[in-house]
Records
---
Amino acid sequence: MGTPRKIVIDPVTRVEGHGKVTLHLDEAGEVTEARFHIVEFRGFERFIRGRMYWEAPIVIQRLCGICPVSHHLAAAKAMDMVVGVDRLTPTAEKLRRLMHYGQILQSNALHIFHLASPDLLFGFDAPPEQRNIIAVLNQYPEIGKWAIFIRKFGQEVIKATGGRKIHPTTAVPGGVTQNLAVADRDALRAQVDQIVDWCRAALVHHLGFVEANPALHRDFASFPSNYLSLVGQGGAMDLYDGRLHAIDAAGATLLDAPPADYVSHFAEEVRNWSYLKFPYLRSLGREAGWYRVGPLAQVNVCTSIGTPLAEAARRDFMATGGGAPVHATLAYHWARLIVLLHCAEVIRDLLFDDDLQGNELMATGTRRETGIACVEAPRGTLIHHYTVDDKDQITSANIIVSTTNNNEAMNRAVAKVAREELSGRDITEGLLNHIEVAIRAYDPCLSCATHALGQMPLMVTLLDHEGHEIAKGVKQ
């Protein structure tokens, strides 16, 4: 018998933001506790208070440099509600959609090719110096080409619709500030067929991995769960707008409601060891009401996809579960590639829509004090909620991001892998990477997701030139 041990993975690598995992092992080497800690804090819900409501789409997206479009558009949609606009002009609606699908395309490409593919291509236990995008580029040049050019195309879509590739500026309360220039449209049209072909090829390549590793795909870090996603008319996939739809592990409907009603249906639990909250469905309670979001949920929850190649891929995906939801955690990657292909198809269709060159950019309405909106970000369901006073200043904000929605699921995945693969074994770097693989499947954006409960103390330590502590103070 040994002694109890604590193992810390700090930081978790190949994710956006900063997090760590702590594992507690007993005398026999069995894992007794495993937690995924979010150690980063960002106070944007506080920063935005007192700002004018029209600043929100610009300011709040500084939460993240990977998925700023999602926050830009969610805030703009919430402020549409504040200015009383329930329906945008066709040009504004379609320009925002094009920007949004460009964002999901580039972000999903970044994750699947740059962050996740080293594990899938080289193996979870491969040497750490091999598990990176440079090794992928060297050994799999075709995949490296997809990694670079699919993401580049998505960024060009964002630039053409949003004014720049990172932190766009064109979505404003009630509409947009510009249409799509003909020169930009034609440049994107010239590339889009190739992008669709590459997305389809990437999906086919990944299916080879699934077929070669059926047990791994079925069992690794997997468990049944509820799922949440936006859906459009008739339950079709809609990543920009729609109703909040939740299903249980068998596929039965748990919730179907407009985003404006989210407060009635969701609660957020706080735990003292993480800056991430733990959302759940009020109707089921905190023990049973947690759920998963993101590509796996987006594909599981919808009843169809409105583009032909992605719809065929969805049907093949759902067939593996006999029509019921697919619960495999590694299926996030398969689903992500289906969504990637769908985005490319949607972008192609939109680029041939003349409404994008329209001149009616803004709509008007009657002022309201509350704005609530939802989009499907690359990592899943994103909710923005603001209140605005009669001086046009934001008085409160609540943001529930995709990674927050997945918090319980990520912790369960970490615990499952730790207990099944680390208990009673000599702990190696490769084995610890298995835990990171489980986390990476969710593509967490940790910096977007953090909250604090109550006051967060500022701790200041003063050191002399030799590093000795002179004074320490805490400001609440």
---
Amino acid sequence: MTSAAKVYLVGAGPGDPDLITLKAVKALQQAEVVLVDDLVNPALLAHCPQARIVPVGKRGGCKSTPQHFINRMLVALAEQGQVVVRLKGGDPFVFGRGGEEMLALRAANIPYEIIPGMTSGLGACASMEVPVTHRGYNHGVTLITGHTQDGEPLPWQALVETNTTLVIYMGMQHLPEITRNLINAGMSADMPCMVVENGTREHQRAVTSSLQAIPYLAHTQGLKSPAIIVVGEVVKLAKNSQQEQDWQENLQTWLNVASAA
């Protein structure tokens, strides 16, 4: 391994190519190899025309590159003397498995650097003019995953009792279950809720409704992953989304469909 060899774990931001950091761009400009996630905006690769691009996509419900293989590849490339960028959507340490890659590099004594990025959950909220914290509505924000690795249930009651904005990643396949669990744990069925698909990108779409009605509305509008689910009073402040409807109307439609099933 040469003295120049190094691995950069880089956050690409939430999707809009202008939201990548200057430090991340500088790392891309000196990279010899870039291992890029599936959700990274391809426009960002214009910053590294000199580099070899290796797709190592990860997307829920699709064929993915195993994490242990990515870890080994990062170590092997660095041991060959390469300057490597691991380009990850959002922030590498927020549901991006950056911590696992860091530990693999640390164990192999590979020089590395972490370059944070704007996480997709916060970027999607900002793009919809939803402040995840607002002292008139809450006292914090909680970032959670929509499913756990071992399939264990999330602490729904504890999440409800935090009285924070809930920003839920990787939850679209489980949206009806998530909303049902929150309501069963004591959250109001009328709690404002939002789903943002492709947050910050030109083709972003979003819907807002009540917690109880959002699965029906998201389904009828065809929203799919990648998407962020946001639950909390601050959703009331969202700008109008293209498919927004009155919450009570959505709730009644959902209840009518559910009762007819």
